[in-house]
Amino acid sequence: MATALFPRTPRLDGTDPEAKRAEILRCFHATFDRYESLFGLLADDEAYYRKPISLRHPLIFYLGHTATFFINKLVLAGLVDKRLDPRLESMFAVGVDEMSWDDLDDARYDWPPVAAVWDYRRKVRETVDRVIRATPLVLPIGWDNPFWAVLMGIEHERIHLETSSVLMRQHALRYVRPQPDWQPCRDSGPAPGNALVDIPAGQVHLGRDFDDPYYGWDNEYGRHETEVPAFRAARYLVSNAEFLAFVEAGGYADDDLWDEEGLGWRRFVRAEHPTFWVPDGGGWRLRLLAEEVPMPWDWPVETNCHEARAFCRWKARETGLPVRLPSEDEWHRLYDHAGLADVPADAPAAANLHLDHWASSCPVTRFPHGELFDVVGNVWQWCETPTYPFDGFAVHPLYDDFTTPTFDGRHNMIKGGAWISAGNEARHVSRYAFRRHFFQHAGFRYVVSAAPVAQPGSLYETDALLAQYAEFHYGDEYFGVPNFPQAVARIALDAFARHHGGPAGRALDLGCATGRASFELARRFEAVEGVDFSARFIQTGVQLQDNGVLRYTLLDEGELVSYRERRLDALGLAGVARKVAFWQGDACNLKPVFTAYDLILAANLIDRLYAPRRFLAHVHQRLNPGGLLVLASPYTWLEEHTRREEWLGGFKKDGESHTTLDGLKDLLGERFDLVEGPRDVPFVIRETRRKFQHTLSELTVWRKRG
Amino acid sequence: MATALFPRTPRLDGTDPEAKRAEILRCFHATFDRYESLFGLLADDEAYYRKPISLRHPLIFYLGHTATFFINKLVLAGLVDKRLDPRLESMFAVGVDEMSWDDLDDARYDWPPVAAVWDYRRKVRETVDRVIRATPLVLPIGWDNPFWAVLMGIEHERIHLETSSVLMRQHALRYVRPQPDWQPCRDSGPAPGNALVDIPAGQVHLGRDFDDPYYGWDNEYGRHETEVPAFRAARYLVSNAEFLAFVEAGGYADDDLWDEEGLGWRRFVRAEHPTFWVPDGGGWRLRLLAEEVPMPWDWPVETNCHEARAFCRWKARETGLPVRLPSEDEWHRLYDHAGLADVPADAPAAANLHLDHWASSCPVTRFPHGELFDVVGNVWQWCETPTYPFDGFAVHPLYDDFTTPTFDGRHNMIKGGAWISAGNEARHVSRYAFRRHFFQHAGFRYVVSAAPVAQPGSLYETDALLAQYAEFHYGDEYFGVPNFPQAVARIALDAFARHHGGPAGRALDLGCATGRASFELARRFEAVEGVDFSARFIQTGVQLQDNGVLRYTLLDEGELVSYRERRLDALGLAGVARKVAFWQGDACNLKPVFTAYDLILAANLIDRLYAPRRFLAHVHQRLNPGGLLVLASPYTWLEEHTRREEWLGGFKKDGESHTTLDGLKDLLGERFDLVEGPRDVPFVIRETRRKFQHTLSELTVWRKRG
């Protein structure tokens, strides 16, 4: 039996490269062949060209796609020097994701004959085979090892093995035919009554190190640790029978059970029951891969996330308990509580997983896992948690848009794997996510917990200006120019130490933008208030306070971006961040409450104010006697920001050049002494990988007399 | 007599600082006092407040102005630490130049009482006196010596001594009264017949070294040398009698004798005769400083430049000779031909100059200078030459807008000085210029020459973008980044030497902008063609070819600018510039004539083209076999320049990142080999004194297969 097992994802380490090469070769062949065998379920050529669902390509695309993916990644990795068939490869490269209505124009595709694609696959198989045999192999295989591209191709094909099987299940019955290799489970019976199992509180430690000995997708790396409060979990996955009560109670017609997004989906598709349920007179049958069978009531129901959530709301109403889907963290508590381990290399899984048993679900009572059943396997389990990057996340250079586009709060995690999930998919560390209306071989288990589910706080900031400022405040240095808000804050703190005898009480960072200088001032000051006209900018600082992490995409070239993550702790600011309060405000019309400061910093502010004279005329009212005003500005006066009459300088006055510094002296001289500067503080703002603003800000320190 | 001479401008060198201090003090006192004595000509207080001419301030302003100027410059030089009277000084600071109609709003001025201004002058006199006595004096006095500010104030007041005397001459007679110190010449008689004197061809060497031992205004420094062809010059200045013939011939009514600008002036003021001529029955009287006298027909006529030019055109028509005003260079030939020297320190001038004789003109027959009369003195002499900066021009930091605003082609030179011209004004190296419709104590001498008068070719480029590019191509380096077009051209030349065996024949610089790389390529290539879409950019290169010099203003802060001059010879490019031809053209639709090149350079071009794919698809047709294509670009693709479909890269293609370099390889690979690069070449574009674009251009060298 062991030899018939679908090969597990290989370990990346070892001492015998040639043995590893042979293992990878077997794994490739088995995966490539198993994928082709799936297409044996299609009844005829028409089945390749008819779309199972309108928003996705027909299966002919998916037959070619996994092969082209191999070539693309091998080209990128430098293992293949030219394309096998540029026309086919262009056609098969993209189109995996569900598209919007107007994006998938059939007329644009002139699909090749089925035989041509099979022929193409044969050539790809030979090419990959040759690459695996000929490429020097050094163990362990890390992210930058050429073999990573080979493993990526294999794991990618295993994903499509599963998603293509879903499309076949969505195909009209006349387009499919059962095959001996893809036989479903024939067991079924009455469903068990479900029950709640106590799961004690506990820690979860998620995220993998970058030298973890198994292949992973980028979003599995990094670190996430948290304490999960005690909760109760349904012993069984929700069965078709348990879900029937919801259907019969009118759950699909009860708008109160659906959130806005779910309601939108339900109305759009006019859903009245689970998608694979087939009405049959007064009863139901179930659509499997290539056949319909009498409803197996004790098999897990398959739903999308919206249906699962609506069921939980109904259940909560019925029971008065806080029923909901588990969070990703809670799923890991189930896994730990059940004492599970990943699929063994040389024995069938103790779960309906990895194609080790059937080409379908099986009764929810079949695989006990501690006090629970089906913690892994059978069908995927929807979680309440939208996918998000762990701290330390980084994209893999060969595939930088595999998970990053899903960090949008609209893709929810599925955990545990289904009967067809293999390789990485079958590992408990895997982290797949789909749009909430999407169908996979996925159902759910409900939990009872009053604890709210944490929503990922830090998605990728893609707004170009915000991302520029995030990088400006928290990112890399360019041309050797030190971080500007940090440099300015340090100068301010040094000046404060030199020119102000007293304790560092309250500081104001006016025009704080994304807040770096506010945090830096909080290293010394008791309390710092960061004020900016832009609520969007401030939100970045608030997000850092809340989550300690900031993520954004940086424009590289044209539309190409790269991904950045910055952490307050890495900047040594995690301990002081709570001392900062951010506020939206107008420096020219600041509320009276902003007063009694020992230091006011206004960096790169005054030449963007509409009334800088008014600001400077009143700023002394906000400072304690002896307090410092730190100004830094490149004096880039522009009529679009500041009317000419309001400019502080940069013009001829009484026949002589009147610089902004002259203007500052005129306006501040009555109440302030200039105690430091002027000095230049440079800064660089990155616009693209190749284009930067490089500016000199003039810094002056003024002490309020008193 | 010698003690009564109005002190000459002091030498700046010497061995006895205290003697020099005493000399400067005497000069200051004499100038300050003489200026005040001029105001003794005003009859009453109303004379101070009534404007002599509508477009200029009343004389009360000029009384205060020269005093305030001292304070302003002493403050700037750090010799005075605070203003004496900020309100008066703001009022008296600006308003010297003639203004436009809507700029001089009387209501805006609430002039102080005359006595208050006299009192202010007294305080200024004390202050300047104290500064001269107390400031350490090191000889010689150079541009950066604090005493330069003192001399500037003195020379500035001497200028206003003259211009205020013109205003008094324009005042209504009832506002003035003759004074013993300001007595006119009483000699007059019949005018001499004029005659032409042969002036042989000769060299002139104009411009002063910066260590010249006399004070000068900025536009006198630098160097201008040229060969002046032989010409003939009128022996005498044009007398009132000689000009009468023009008046009586209907010259003022004959539009053919006036150019467009002159006609505009003449019609606007309805001029029918010289401005100081007063119709008197059928005859004429002449207005002097404070009286009208019977017309002295043998005195020089006083006109503006338009009237002088009209006379010359009339004279040319009458005589059939090429009569015109002299150029500045020709005036210097007259000076050299007459063997003149500047006014002696200890004896009256041998000319009606420096107030050594009268407070008016005198007969044109009084002061012979070689074969000519009045080469200097009596009245200023209009020249055909608009003022312009000499090569090596630099502004003085204490007064950066003294001459620069007049480099506009609309201010013509006057030479030789008038009876009241003193100090620097009286020196032959002085270079004053006024608008062509302006009146001074100025007339003219005509010359006969078929040689055209060179017009200053290089005025200051003030367009911000052109000036940015001029600095980018020919200016300073910032942040240590080497000049970009030079660096790119050098890389191109090196690559050519390495990858092309043959001679460096023809090169094309596509997107040449202001042309620096074209000139740099001409160091090696036989012929270089520079092509740009912008005719304005190309004009800069053409100007450099024509004049060898380029001048522009750089934005410093707000509206404040600084002045730059760049020379082809200083860049070692004067010898090769003639090998370059500049053309306006569209890189995406280039005329067939642009072909058969050995090297094509396209620096910072492709991401600004509207059809870069078309350009690259055809560029091989323009190269000889084995020829090089050198591309450099930061790949800053923007929809505003290039439609998304035309981008060469910077997007996902077939699911993978497709960089511009990938796109270049796809488009050029068929016909070119990539022989060098990619490598980064940085560049910096200065926007203001504090704001820069800092960019990395990716450079690749492609050889056309052949």
Automatic annotation (TrEMBL), chains A, B:
Taxonomic classification: Bacteria, Pseudomonadati, Pseudomonadota, Betaproteobacteria, Rhodocyclales
Pathway annotation: Amino-acid biosynthesis; ergothioneine biosynthesis
Name this polypeptide is given: 5-histidylcysteine sulfoxide synthase
Keywords: Iron, Oxidoreductase
Gene label: ovoA
Keyword Iron: yes
DinB-like domain: residues covered: 28-163
The UniProt record lists the keyword Iron: yes
Matches recorded under InterPro entries: CTDL_fold (IPR016187), DinB-like (IPR024775), OvoA_Cterm (IPR027625), OvoA_Nterm (IPR027577), SAM-dependent_MTases_sf (IPR029063), Sulfatase_Mod_Factor_Kinase (IPR051043), SUMF_dom (IPR005532), SUMF_sf (IPR042095)
PANTHER family: GENERIC METHYLTRANSFERASE, SULFATASE MODIFYING FACTOR 1, 2
